[in-house]
């Protein structure tokens, strides 16, 4: 596996844990987190400054981290932990809907 992919895995797991901590502390609601991530996803999709030669697969790759965090936010329940691979599988499942 590419080292950058391994680093992305660690960064996403860490940010996901921070997101859960923010939810657990009551600092952010599920809807506030989802709204922020939904906006970020929309901005990535409509970014006029994006390279015109970027393939559809590359656009999907740029959206993956945001979608990963949206899944973490949507499935989080106190005491329920999901692994990185379970979350990524859910991202893939939802992308195809």
Q: Which key phrases capture this entry?
A:
97 residues
Please provide a written account of the structure.
By secondary structure, the protein is mostly helical. The chain has one domain. 73% of the residues lie in helices and 0% in strands. The chain contains 4 helices and no strands. Helix 1 runs parallel beside helix 3. It is globular and about 45 Å long. The model has no long low-confidence stretch (mean pLDDT 88).
Rg, nearest Å: 14 Å
- Low-pLDDT segments: none
Distance between the termini: 28 Å
Shape: globular
What does the secondary structure layout of this molecule look like, with pairings?
Layout lengths: L2 H23 L4 H16 L10 H20 L8 H12 L2
Helix pairs in contact: 1-3, 2-3, 3-4
Task: Describe what is shown at a glance.
The protein has 97 residues and is mainly α. The chain has helices at residues 3-25, 30-45, 56-75, 84-95. It is 73% helix and 0% strand.
């Amino acid at each position: 596996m590419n080292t950058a992919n391994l680093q992305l895995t660690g960064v996403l797991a860490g940010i996901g844990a921070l997101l859960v901590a923010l939810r657990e502390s009551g600092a952010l609601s599920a809807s506030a987190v989802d709204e922020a991530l939904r906006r970020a996803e929309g901005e990535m999709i409509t970014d006029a400054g994006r390279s015109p030669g970027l393939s559809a697969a590359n656009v999907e790759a740029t959206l993956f981290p945001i979608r990963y965090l949206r899944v973490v936010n949507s499935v989080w329940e106190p005491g329920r932990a999901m692994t990185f691979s379970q979350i990524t599988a859910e991202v893939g499942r939802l992308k195809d809907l």
